[in-house]
């Protein structure tokens, strides 16, 4: 007799369950079978919980490794987005495996939440949405880097973005809609040095702005293409200043070798000397040098 079944029989006998007649034996066996099934389900759930905890701990370790990579790139004055896009060092290629592991985990998690009933999905979302947001802000720029590494690619948000990023952002917006919004507070300003750029598609917008600059400089571009490029640059300029004012971008975008700074150099040559805007004033007067130095930055505002 199996230990589990023997234990159940002993417990039933202890509470006075009789098994004298054939009918009592059949009823008892049915009851034992139900207990066995429940016990097996419980054991399986406990095993899944242990596996989930172990995997979650591994995910945390992988995210910390990505943070280390981010700091390493910052010390190179280029930033982790451009480091990964340009594949300058062996470490950049190693990050590909790291990104794949993290992405597979999040994709599976998103698919799992989609399959669950709405109430259960909402409960789960409340417990891991914060981690999902950090993942999206940290990892999606790497996918964007891969997308624009291929010459000719543009408009990542329409043609290249993975569905799981879209859902994570959508769920985050639903969560944020239930909270009061306010202007940036002092706490956020104090933390600007370590902030992750809030818009995980920021670098896609930078890349498309670079493409627009090239179109304006290209003598073969027709009038329609140039007008579209100009409108895109106007929108990107306003968008960038809005993000800066909200302290929603990482100071890394201002590193001298970043794609954003490369865009600014190209854009500055395109715009007229009389062009006046918040971003132009911010960049021309090099106020971005104080962006990470909170107190000095405030004095210029």
TrEMBL record:
GO terms for molecular function: carboxylic ester hydrolase activity. Signal peptide: none annotated. Residues 65-281 form the EDS1 EP domain. It holds the Pfam family EDS1_EP. It comes from Salix dunnii. One of its GO terms (biological process) is defense response. This is EDS1 EP domain-containing protein. It comes from the Eukaryota. Coiled coil: none annotated.
């Amino acid at each position: 007799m199996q230990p589990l079944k023997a234990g159940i029989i002993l417990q039933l006998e202890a509470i006075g369950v009789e098994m004298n007649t054939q009918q009592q034996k059949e009823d008892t066996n049915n009851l034992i079978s139900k207990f066995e099934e429940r016990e097996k389900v419980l054991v399986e759930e406990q095993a899944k919980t242990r596996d989930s905890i172990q995997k979650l701990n591994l995910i945390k370790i992988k995210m910390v490794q990505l943070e280390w990579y981010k700091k390493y790139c910052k010390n190179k004055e280029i930033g982790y987005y451009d480091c990964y896009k340009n594949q300058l060092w062996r470490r950049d290629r190693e990050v590909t495996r790291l990104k794949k592991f993290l992405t597979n985990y999040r994709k599976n998690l998103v698919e799992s939440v989609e399959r669950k009933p709405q109430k259960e999905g909402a409960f789960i979302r409340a417990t891991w949405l914060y981690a999902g947001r950090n993942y999206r802000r940290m990892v999606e720029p790497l996918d964007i880097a891969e997308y624009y590494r291929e010459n000719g690619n543009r408009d990542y948000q329409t043609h290249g973005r993975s569905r799981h990023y879209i859902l994570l952002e959508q769920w985050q917006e639903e969560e944020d809609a239930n909270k009061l919004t306010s202007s940036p507070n002092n706490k956020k300003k104090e933390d600007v040095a370590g902030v992750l750029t809030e818009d995980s598609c920021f670098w896609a917008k930078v890349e498309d702005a670079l493409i627009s600059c090239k179109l304006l400089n290209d003598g073969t571009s027709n009038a329609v293409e140039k007008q579209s490029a100009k409108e895109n640059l106007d929108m990107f300029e306003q968008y960038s200043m809005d993000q800066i004012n909200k302290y929603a971008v990482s100071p890394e975008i201002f590193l001298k070798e970043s794609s954003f700074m490369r865009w600014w150099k190209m854009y500055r040559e395109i715009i007229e000397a009389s062009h006046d805007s918040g971003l132009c004033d911010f960049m021309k007067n090099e106020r971005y040098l104080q962006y990470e130095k909170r107190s000095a930055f405030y004095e210029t505002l």
